[in-house]
Amino acid sequence: MSKELVSALNSLEEDKGIKKEIIVEALEAALTSAYKRNYGQAQNVEVEFDDKKGNIHVYAVKKVVEEVADSRLEVSIKDALELNKGYELDDEIKFEVTPKNFGRIAAQTAKQVIMQRVREAERTMVYNKFSKYQDELITGEVERQDGHFVYVDLGQVEAVMPAGDQIPGEVYRPQDKVKVYVNKVEDATKGPQVFVSRTSPGLLKRLFEEEVPEIYDGTVEIVSIAREAGDRAKVSVRSNNPDIDPVGTTVGTRGQRVQTIVNELSGENMDVVEWTDDNAQYIANALNPSEVVDVIFDPENERACTVIVPDYQLSLAIGKKGQNARLAAKLTGYKIDIKSESEVSGNSSDIIEDNE
Questions:
Q1: Start and end of every S1 motif domain (predicted)?
Q2: Prediction pTM value
Q3: What are phi and psi of 293, to 5 degrees?
Q4: Residue 208: which of 196, 228, 223 has the closest Cα?
Q5: 136-197 falls under which CATH superfamily?
Q6: How far apart are CA 129 and CA 118, in angstroms?
Q7: N or C terminus: fewer CB in 10 A for the chain?
Q8: What is the pLDDT of residues 21-52, one digit of tens each?
């Protein structure tokens, strides 16, 4: 068993990256507990493991005292001096008490410790790997689905995609390849837990970075994203190079770049609008494709405004079930009150607020 154990420790260090010293320390602690459990709980013992030869020794540690009250914990100064003239009161002496049949218990204990350390090391490795992928895009394979979750194999770990992170109407079949956004990585008791999403705005940002080199290298910057996943999204962009049109670059020739993303997201419509530090113009851009006549800011609320549109553009500005205005509000961070020109006199209108 000795040679086998030393060989196993060396292999673990080479193959799993688990330092031998860590396992030896854990093994000695476990063997100490095993000895006390089987041979005498009251004793103060230490177990030493020779990681070169694999030998295991158990020592009873006794304190040098004038008079012995408990022979399991103490040794008299008289007996100590017979062993070594250098001993003094309160010194600690180790007496070997290794049982003859301790090898069997040691072997079982060593196996348990090694298996536990291997599991812990593998968990740590997986957690460290996937924690680096947090807020990133990764391609996985659909494994299965139940009433609440889609389970995605990312290699080494099974990620979960909750119902709220699944695109409405999207079908996930086993063995389908799917791009997901890593929302969160937890070091849970049962092992690393990875949560992924198809509805996060972060997914859309990473898809644009993949598809548009100018966004990836920072020439064009995504300022804000508002999504109603699977249906429609608005993305505002700005250029850090005055010679590059941010919207045209992002959309691509004949819309090819944005169409690739639309296809990836099951037909989710994309409005790409230009960000500007002129808030009125930015809000007007965000309400695309509607025309905007004027933007009037509320003097009592710096994040609220009234947007005036031509009468015939009112429905377009608000959008189906208020979606266009709602996404514009999320994109800009403004509370938007949309009125037609004929309503400016004071008639009420729907108010769309940024709920984020």
A1: 133-199
A2: 0.70
A3: -85, -45
A4: 223
A5: Nucleic acid-binding proteins (2.40.50.140)
A6: 16
A7: C
A8: 878 888 888 888 888 887 766 678 888 888 78
